[in-house]
Amino acid sequence: MQVVKLPRMLYPQPRVLTPSRNDVLVLTPWLAPIIWEGTFNIDLLNEQFRLQNLTVGITVFAIKKYVAFLKLFLETAEQHFMVGHRVTYYVFTDRPDAVPRVALAEGRRLEVLRVPAAARWQDVSMRRMQMLSDFCERRFRREVAFLVCTDVDMRFSDHVGVEVLSPLFGALHPGFYGAARQAFTYERRPQSRAYIPWDQGDFYYLGGLFGGSVSEVHRLTTACHQAMTADRANGIEAVWHDESHLNRYLLDHKPTKVLSPEYLWDEQLLGRPAVMRKLRFMAVPKNHQQIRN
Amino acid sequence: MRCRRLALGLGFCLLVGTVLCTLWAYADSWLPFSYIPYYLPCPEIFNMKLQFRGEKPFQPVARAQYPQPKLLEQRPTELLTLTPWLAPIVSEGTFDPELLRLIYQPLNLTVGLTVFAVGKYLGFVQHFLESAEQFFMQGYRVSYYVFTDAPAAVPRVPLGPGRVLRVLPVQSHARWEEVSMRRMEAISRHIAQRAHREVDYLFCVDVDMVFRNPWGPETLGDLVAAIHPGYYAAPRRQFPYERRHVSTAFVADGEGDFYYGGAVFGGRVDRVYEFALGCHMAILADKANGVMAAWQEESHLNRRFISHKPTKVLSPEYIWDDRKPRPPDLKLIRFSTLDKNARWLRS
User: Which of A8, A167, A215 sits opposite B255 (nearest CB)?
Assistant: First the structure.
């Protein structure tokens, strides 16, 4: 990121003896911030980002029936995602005609990228890594500074902004943020490239939300794709597909920011614990059987 | 008649002349320093295209056993660990040194450390270097840069492998404030001429201090500041910022995050260059207006860190004053003052 000079701004003084949150960890042992509500001043961060004049790309895959999720996704993104900054939506789909026309604010545009659909939903999920890797080279490098790669069956319900941006970020899976590492659903078979032993692991990261600079996302998606290809050649498929490989990658290449479960939540399954001050990006209830076939 | 007028006229001129001379002599001794052009900025470095050593890409971390980070934890007494602009505030307990070693060691980094030992301050160098050999960036390549007016008198301290000492001559000055403020100029010039090719990261610290505990890669960042031990608990209106509008280091009421210490700052060598150069230009602008900021270059450093926020902040563990009683929240003092008699030194 460029060096920028901030204008004079007025905001409350940070106090050394007063932690911003005393109910959660806000810094990983490798000194990466864990983003929770209350840890950041969005006006400061917005100003720093605005002065650099950069564009954020956001990728979604709307394959087969998943195109139905696009309208709500895009409409809520317009309300909550990187508002006030330059954004490019990259919609990967096998049905370009089904992409809805959503009114976009100034400085924001939508690109439809036609891709083939795989038969199995597991393959659809895993192919994302390869496609992202390809497009990083082909397009993203020249068009955007940062990439946010997300699932499409979601809606934005509160602010998701520049506080997430950094060279490499992952998001904590809402089902495991309080769990011991032995309970994480890592791939546990040593034959797989995604294997993580019982006594290792920092967090359980989501396959449905990650990102960073284009070069780091390229590196991550390429590595995951290669690992999945190697697994396929050995006749093994990791228990949670691309998510297992993402977890292995982020164990070996520590992210520079970690997003709290505020950034991907399922209210139906998990309710609203006190520690979640904001629910920003939420799963849309869906019938798994119906949508995956 | 004419003689008398002539005598009166001459007498009057003499009187006025004497008064003016007295005033001038008085003003000259009252002003802290003399006029510009006192020293010119360094035009030869302004247009230099510095080839910095370049960023190192992420390397995979070797596998290791370490406890799982606990996400949900009740911590009643603790320091702030993250600034509002998401820069980590580093203190004992916030990081795992073994994990950081695994991340940073493969990058094969060289870290520079500058100190200024002018006049009697040369007496601190021995103890400073010995303590640095024990605690500063153990296991990394280190370049000490000692700026002094007496290069021959720099003590030769035995250094570990991959660690070197470079002695750089600087001019001495009558006033200690001048010596202090010229550091920004010397640092930026040194980076432009040399250090940009030799180191990846650079720290600039005071010499009248010693390392008492490990100072490692947890301190590395793009632009690093340290919180002054005297003001970490104070409200911002009590920070000793420069409060006169006439100075370029002016900070208004209601502005300011932390009061940072001038004794420690650093970062990636290209960012330190920009930072030191920016401070140097601000100091020069003040000089042109006959102003010296309240705490010399520390005032300018604080001004600059408000508009160019550091990407990492070191807790007062990294810049302590041993004369202060240690609060329980600061668990491990790593770098602190050597007790000295300031007046003796600065005379």
Answer: A8
Give, in order, the Cα–Cα distances in Å from B307 to each of A44, B242, B257.
11, 15, 10
Domains in chain A, ordered, with CATH?
Answer: 34-292 (3.90.550.10)
A88, containing H or E segment: strand A86-93
A285: closest CA of chain B, how far (Å): 27
B-chain residues within 8 Å CB-CB of A205?
none
* Rounded percentage of chain B residues whose pLDDT exceeds 90: 64
Token pair of A97 as six digits: 């005609």
The backbone torsions φ and ψ at residue A43, rounded to the nearest 5 degrees and listed phi first, read -65, -40
The nearest CA of chain B is from the CA of A179 a distance in Å of: 9
Say whether A39 and B86 touch across the interface (CB within 8 A). Answer: yes
For residue B347, pLDDT over 50 is answered with no
The Cβ-side half-sphere exposure at B12, using a 13 Å CA radius, reads 6
CA nearest to B328 within chain A: A17
Pick the residue with more confidence: B78 or A29?
A: A29
| Angle formed at CA B122 by CA B119 and CA B126, multiple of 5 degrees | 175
Catalytic residue, chosen from A137, A243, A262, A267, is A243
CB A181 within 8 A of CB A200: yes
CA atoms of B242 and B294, how far apart (whole Å): 5
pLDDT band with cut points at 50, 70 and 90 for residue B24 = low
Distances (CA, A) of B263 to A213, B23, B149, B257, B291: 34, 38, 20, 18, 22
**Pairwise CB contact (< 8 Å): B80 & A15:** yes
Q: Tokens at residue B149, please?
A: 């007016």
Nearest to A25 among B71, B83, B309 (CB): B71
Instruction: Report the DSSP pairing between strands B110-117 and A205-213.
Output: unpaired
Contact B236 A13 (CB under 8 A): yes
Nearest by CB to B80, from A20, A24, A34: name it: A20
**A93 - beta bridge partners?**
A62, A114
With a cut of 0.90, is the ipTM above it? yes
Query: Looking at the predicted structure, is the pLDDT value of residue A282 above 70?
Result: yes
